[in-house]
Amino acid sequence: MTKDDLLKLGYVEQHDGSYSKVPAPVHNSHKSRQLPDTVPQHSPQQALVALAQGKGQSSKRITISINRRSTRTLDLDNFAGGCKPLIDQLRYAQLIPDDDPASVEIIFTQEKVAHQHQQGTSLKIIYH
Fold it and tell me: What is the pTM of this model?
């Protein structure tokens, strides 16, 4: 997407160069605040679309293994929560049919490494 495309969709460029969608102003006499639309939306970037042409899906259970290597470890709930956009992109790219526990088993592991150049995240999808 281009900058013009994002602006047409209602996104606003932030001071750090990223874009975010600003909710429409509320026009009423109480001037109450409303929460922005909380419905999940597809990312404007199609990062995993090219991978969708890979191995076809199976109707059997799928295992996703996410391994994080970093100089410091995270609490498991923070690690798992931070992986939500990645897992959603796997679903949008149709690499997994759904992310519910009946369809997918997700395994989160972490390794502490000594140096920043050793940091990284690996993802493995196993179709059983």
Answer: 0.54
